[in-house]
Amino acid sequence: MNVKILINASYFVVALLFILGLKSMSSPVTARRGIIWAGVAMVLATLVTFGWPGMSNYTLMVVALAIGGGFATWSGKVVQMTDMPQMVALYNGMGGGAAAAIAAIELARGETHSTVATTLAVLGGLIGTVSFSGSLVAFAKLQGIMKKTFHLPAQNAVNLILAAVTIFCGLAIIISSHLAMFQISVFFLLALVLGAVITMPIGGADMPVVISLFNALTGLAVGFEGFVLNNPALIIAGIVVGSAGTLLTQLMAKAMNRPLTNILFKPITGEAQTGGAGIAGTMKEVSALDAAAMLRYAQKVIIVPGYGMAVGQAQHKVKEMSVLLEEAGITVKFAIHPVAGRMPGHMNVLLAEAGVSYDKIFDLEEINEEFSQADVALVIGANDVVNPAARTDKSSPIYGMPILNVDQAHNVIVIKRGKGAGYSGIENELFYAENTRMLYGSAQQVVNDVIKNIKEMSA
Amino acid sequence: MEGFAALYIFMLAAFTGYEVISRVPVILHTPLMSGSNFVHGVVLVGAMVALGEARTPLEQAIGFIAVLLGAANAAGGYVVTERMLGLFKTGKEGRPDKKN
User: Fold this and answer.
1) Which residue did the predictor score with more confidence, A364 or A1?
2) Distant-in-sequence, close-in-space partners of A218: CB < 8 Å, separation ≥ 6
3) What pLDDT sits at residue A346?
4) Which residues contact A223 (CB under 8 A, 6 or more apart)?
5) What are phi and psi of A99, to 5 degrees?
6) Quick one: pLDDT at residue A148?
7) Whole-model pTM?
């Protein structure tokens, strides 16, 4: 009896610390405290659970904890900051898989005694499995392992039919009095396929929103399994994360001005599209020397970073260049679009890592009015977020998304890896504009050349 | 957990999650997604109990995998979130550039 009371009291503290931790993480000032509190909660929950009465298989438990925990700690530490998004997808998928595995065990053992418990177990298993395979697909895509987006004929119909069949199997499990392993296996298998099939056609800037959705779904799955296991820590943590994650997903989708239904059912494919008439004009190239001159003799420069800067690991060089320009008396500001990069806040993280101070970084609403007074807008590896087609071209997949008014600057320099289409596969009118100059090359190399040239001009 | 009590808890937990996220600046969207990803890693605790009560080899195998996955979610989620939040060190100025 005493042990149970101790465990439940500890779980209460755990739930409290999780909630306080998440709350702290919602403000920049207290954010770092938040994860530590949540970490303490996790350690407490784990230690206390070792004392759960009636358990065996302790060796297996410790080995599993060591392998899973060890691998994840190592991989989390060695990846570059730019790869964070896919790691979040990976770990989230694993959480979903864990919830699904719990559901599988509970169903196989016939442990669920009421219809409600069985329903929750089945639901948790379904959501957890879909999140598992979907997140793994998301990881593969962002990591570059899966290059093309697979678009099945009548994709939405296939998704719906598959989902219906899976749900039907789930219902069969709920109403049957005697469960066979076969039924359970088929159900989980279908759910696995469903998760993968839903995620495969999604590409482009939609991926972060999908990862956030899977995060919320895993939270929900964990919450449901918590009800099945009668574990308050899982219930509270799971439902709080499920709800928080859902709102976060909606906020992200709103920042892109793409409703969630569009993202799921009308995804932007990876193939290059022209979305209407071809673009008039030509792309005009410029050398690092000319670009340096334009920058050096400007009075106001706005830098627009994008995924290309992340891939080229150019953030430190960009900071160096901005410092050089400022020493020459030029005003330098950074404009961050909400979905620049692969995740909201992606660019902010990189610039912070390079030591760019907060008061130089502005978001879309703050800086959009200033582009018309900027002498040079320097676009580094950004594409869709500065594409004017989003304002006017109704047939464009990005129509309606708010963009940075780069085209209003006196001059535009675009640093780009090559002549290919961007993440969404759409041609960018900005590149063909009269006052735009293209500077081809890998971001780090190009910015380095520009820095050298600026130094020579300032010497 | 009894029917209606469970419903109350569900509702209150859902409201809590919603409230925690409202009024979050965009720069914290990704760290918060990572942080909440870490928190649902507490599933590892449920997996421990499931494994602990497993009796047949099949149950033990699934339970082992469950604990492994749960531990990976928790550990990985913590490391990644901590790294992201490490960049919010000082409020007003960015960290001094390591290269200088």
Assistant:
1) A364
2) A92, A93, A95, A96, A99, A127, A128, A131, A135, A241, B37, B40
3) 81
4) A124, A234, A235, A236, A237, A238, A239, A241, A242, B10, B13
5) -60, -40
6) 64
7) 0.78
- In this prediction, what percent of chain A has a pLDDT beyond 90? 46
The beta-carbon neighbor of B28 closest among A26, A54, A319 is A26
pLDDT digits (tens, 9 = 90+) for A226-253: 999 999 999 999 999 999 999 999 887 7
Q: Enumerate the residues of chain A whose CB falls inside 8 A of the CB of residue B44.
A: 46, 65, 68, 98
DSSP assignment of A422-453: -TT-B--GGGGSTTEEEEES-HHHHHHHHHHH
Classify residue B96 by its DSSP letter. P
For chain B, the average pLDDT equals 84
Question: Which has the closest alpha carbon to A105: B90, B89, B55?
Answer: B55
Choose the closest CB to A98 out of B1, B73, B89: B73
- Residue A344: pLDDT over 80: no
| Contact residues on chain A for B94, CB-CB shorter than 8 A | 351-352, 354-358
Q: Hey, is B55 helix, strand or coil?
A: coil
Could you give phi then psi for residue A348, rounded to 5 degrees?
A: -60, -45
- CA separation for the pair A457, A297 (Å, rounded): 10
**B interface mutation test: which of A91, A135, A313 has the most B CBs within 10 A?**
A91
- Chain B hits for A247, CB-CB cut-off 8 Å, are 17-18, 21-22
Residue A28 · residue B92 · CB < 8 Å = no
Mutation site, B73, B89, B90, B92, interface A, largest A CB count within 10 A: B73
pLDDT at A129: 96
Which residues between 58 and 97 in chain B have a beta carbon less than 8 angstroms from any beta carbon of chain A? Answer: 58-60, 62-89, 91-97
End-to-end CA distance of chain B: 58
The H or E element containing residue A420 is: none
B73 against A293, higher pLDDT: B73
